[in-house]
Amino acid sequence: MITRRSALSVTLATGGAALTGAGLTPLLAAHVRAQPATTTSASSANAPAVVAAPEKFRRPMPLLPEKKPVGRAGKSDVYVMTMKPARAEILPGLTTDVLTYDGHFPGPVIRARSHRPVVIRQRNRLTVPTAVHLHGSSVPADSDGDPMDVIEPGTDRVYHYPNRQPHAPLWFHDHAHHLEAENVYRGLSGSYLLTDPAERALPLPRGRYEVVIALRDARFDAQGQLAYAMGDRGRNTLLANGVPYPYFQVAARKYRLRLLNASNQRRFELRLADGSPLIQIGSDGGLLTAPHTTDRIALSAGERADVVVDFSRYPVGTSVVLKNTTGTGPAEEIGEILRFDVVRAAPDPSRIPGRLRTLPPLPRPDTERTVVLRMDEGGEHPGAYIDEKEYDPQRVDARVKFNSSEVWTVTNANARAEHNFHLHLVQFRVLERAGRPPEPGEGGLKDTIHLAPGETVRLQAVFDSYRGRYLYHCHMFEHGVRGMMATMHIQ
User: Fold this and answer.
1) pTM value?
2) Which of 213, 272, 281, 288 is 20 to 30 A from 170, comparing alpha carbons?
3) Do the Cβ atoms of 184 and 481 come closer than 8 Å?
4) Per-residue exposure over 381-409, b if at least 16 CB sit within 10 Å of its own CB, e if not
């Protein structure tokens, strides 16, 4: 059984180059021998994929299953969830070994309500430690899923989510340090939609017309297994809700699409093939103040977008493809994600109000601080740093006064490498990107923000919910594995 100490030694011994492709050695070789999952060797990671690319738009996109509580404990909804290995038919006719929550690839959707607590008993029936992080949530430190606060194999852990924050499209994923990148890649992620009365009062599309779509990339070996290698830039098979290049049948009316980028490191830029408008109504931290009409939605790893598409503009019997216009890989593999097929008419009582929510004014900041993200560009064992330090779980990197407001200036110091930045515990507001006001799609509450090479963003957060130790880090998982994480202590 791999331990945190042995995982660390594996990482230090094997490394891997995110930018050059050199030394792409699997992180969890011991884990893979114990689990049914299969990884690639360093040499096969750089070889052309042997398995044929699946034919596009031949399989339907499934809806993600909704997880139901098993009961109530006082005012809390109680869930039981089991992390376990399973098999899924991701590629047609082939069975792939995956790691799952409750046997689902991707994981299920939990629907929660503000001010109605949730308690989840997580049962680890894998052979490696795990830690469940509810991404974007405001929770006590002992339920945040700290990378070193793990659930050992064969044991259980109870997480308490007070849900005292407003509505937001959260998601949960593994965060065990040195293991999280491969564990999430193999399937350990799911969605957690938190709602509140203000959101439910709006006449937005709902029910069957509100659809969660988890996007990600993958690479498969000749046997149809997920091929994992650290920093692999050849993950060019795109999945929507666990299926490569599916179609999704829609009615000629408005749909609310809850988009999640669950990739380890890929960034998406989403457009409709005919250039029709997308109406963004929300981001990581819930609804924007007003709808934003655009022709593209950009999502780095871990970011979410809430988008309305009006399919009534298309005649029944027509189709439109959701395209991706950025990232590494051949255009025929990464340029298209899924196809919407308009198959019927339907009544549509929904509408998009001109005003979606009101955000309180930001207070005068008590403190300003700077954060610099950098990783070695080139070399066989690249390091990754925040403020030129690799992650040390024993070290506190930032001390934050409880109930204070801070402005953080975050810079990507790399010339070629992209990064993004995620703060645990709080949702923040973007003040500036590259010296300019944020685009409308970044004007709401955020917890993850993309940084292009050489770019700087300024953001402001209020630390008024819980005390304790929480992370801030790059949310490109393999950058965090290499050390691009740090700890803040809210006191």
Assistant:
1) 0.91
2) 272
3) no
4) ebebbbeeeebeeeeebbebeeeebbbbe
pLDDT value of position 338: 98
Query: Count of CB atoms within 10 A of residue 170's CB?
Result: 26
> What does the angle CA 259 – CA 271 – CA 321 come to, to the nearest 5 degrees?
90
Q: Which two tokens stand for residue 175?
A: 């965060």
DSSP letter, residue 312: G
Q: Which two tokens stand for residue 413?
A: 């110091």
Q: What average pLDDT is seen over the chain? A: 91
| Radius of gyration in angstroms for the set of CA atoms belonging to the chain, rounded to a whole number | 21
Domain boundaries, the chain: 207-345, 367-490
Contacts of 13 (CB under 8 A, 6+ apart): none
Are the C-beta atoms of 111 and 68 separated by less than 8 Å?
A: no
Who's near 276: CB < 8 A, 6+ residues apart?
Answer: 295, 309, 313, 320
pLDDT value of residue 53:
80
CATH number of 367-490: 2.60.40.420
Region of residue 193 (left: phi > 0; alpha: psi -120 to 50; beta: else):
beta
Provide the CB-side half-sphere exposure for 131 (13 A, CA): 20
Q: Where does 283-403 have alpha helices with state H?
A: 331-334
Do 207-345 and 367-490 have matching folds? yes
First to last CA, the chain: 37
Which positions ≥6 away from 485 have C-beta within 8 Å?
A: 147, 177, 386, 391, 471, 472, 473, 474
Say yes or no to pLDDT of 16 above 80. no
- Asked whether the beta carbons of 278 and 309 are under 8 A apart, the reply is yes
Tell me: pLDDT of 163 over 50: yes
**pLDDT given for residue 30 in this prediction:** 37
Instruction: Give the architecture-level CATH label for domain 207-345.
Output: Sandwich (2.60)
Q: How many CB atoms lie within 10 A of CB 158?
A: 12
What pLDDT, in 10s, does the model give residues 47-67? 444 577 899 999 999 999 999
3-state secondary structure of 373: strand
* Distance in angstroms (rounded) separating the CA atoms of residues 191 and 96: 22
Tokens of 452: 């292009």
Query: Looking at this protein, which amino acid is placed at residue 244?
Result: P
Q: Is the pLDDT of residue 9 over 70?
A: no
User: Cα–Cα distance between 326 and 51 in angstroms, integer?
Assistant: 24
Average pLDDT over residues 428-454: 97
Could you give the CA distance from residue 382 to residue 384 in angstroms, rounded to a whole number? 7
Query: Which tens digits make up the pLDDT trace of 81-139?
Result: 999 999 999 999 999 999 999 999 999 999 999 999 999 999 999 999 999 999 999 99
**What sections of 143-201 are H helices per DSSP?**
180-185, 197-200
Phi-psi region of 185 (alpha: psi -120 to 50; beta: other; left: phi over 0): alpha
